[in-house]
Write a structure and sequence with these properties.
alpha/beta; Resolvase_HTH_dom; single chain; elongated; Resolv_N; Arc Repressor Mutant, subunit A; 5-stranded mixed sheet; DNA integration
Length: 201
């Protein structure tokens, strides 16, 4: 019998140490994807690896499935093959010989988790709406055109701090450093070089 762990972390929270820490496992599979993501390669490999008599350890129900129907189908499919499923946060283990009470608990807990996720999504939507009303802009910062990049070069070469220049143009310091690297490589002309080219023409 193998003790197998499955861990799923979101693309934002990459810390796997919070799940199944200190539990002796023979094999661990890790996916880095959101709960809505259907493409979970590690989970697919995990299902192919499991055999009858094994026990699958999962931190919590919402780490294993996307919704209640998915959770029930997954657990029933595994226990039907003789594979035990243990959820550590909820303190529940399913063996295929579960009582109606344990099945009811699973449904209730997943329903509560889904309700909490709905509340979080609602609060996020309200927060975004309020931020937009205040003029907060979302998304990537706009790129600078050639003229603006030359102005960045001129300011930096005149001695201004890169942080101040970045703030002035609403860009990151990394962008300023990238522009200066392009300048050093000859990809961006300085203001006097532009004037020289115009005179020559």
């Amino acid at each position: 019998m193998a003790e197998v762990g499955y861990i799923r972390v979101s693309s934002i929270d990459q810390n796997t140490d919070r799940q199944l820490g200190g539990i002796p496992l023979d094999k661990t599979f890790v996916d880095k994807a959101s709960g809505k993501e259907t493409n979970r390669p590690a989970f697919k490999t995990c299902l192919e690896y499991l055999r009858g008599g094994d026990r699958l350890h999962v931190h919590s129900m919402d780490r294993l499935a996307r919704n209640l129907a998915d959770l029930q189908n997954t657990v029933e499919g595994l226990t039907g093959q003789g594979i035990k499923v243990k959820f550590h946060k909820e303190g529940l283990e399913f063996t295929g010989e579960d009582s109606p009470m344990s099945k009811l608990l699973m449904q209730m807990m997943e329903a509560v988790a889904e309700f909490e996720r709905s509340l979080i999504r609602e609060r996020q939507a309200e927060g975004i709406k309020k931020a937009l009303a205040k003029g907060v802009k979302f998304g990537r910062r706009p790129k600078l055109d050639a003229t603006q990049e030359r102005k960045v070069v001129a300011l930096v070469e005149s001695g201004q701090e890169k942080t101040a220049v970045a703030k002035k143009f609403g860009i990151s310091r990394d962008t300023v450093y990238r522009i200066m690297r392009d300048r050093k490589a000859g990809k961006i002309l300085g203001p006097f070089e532009v004037q020289s080219e115009l005179v020559e023409v």
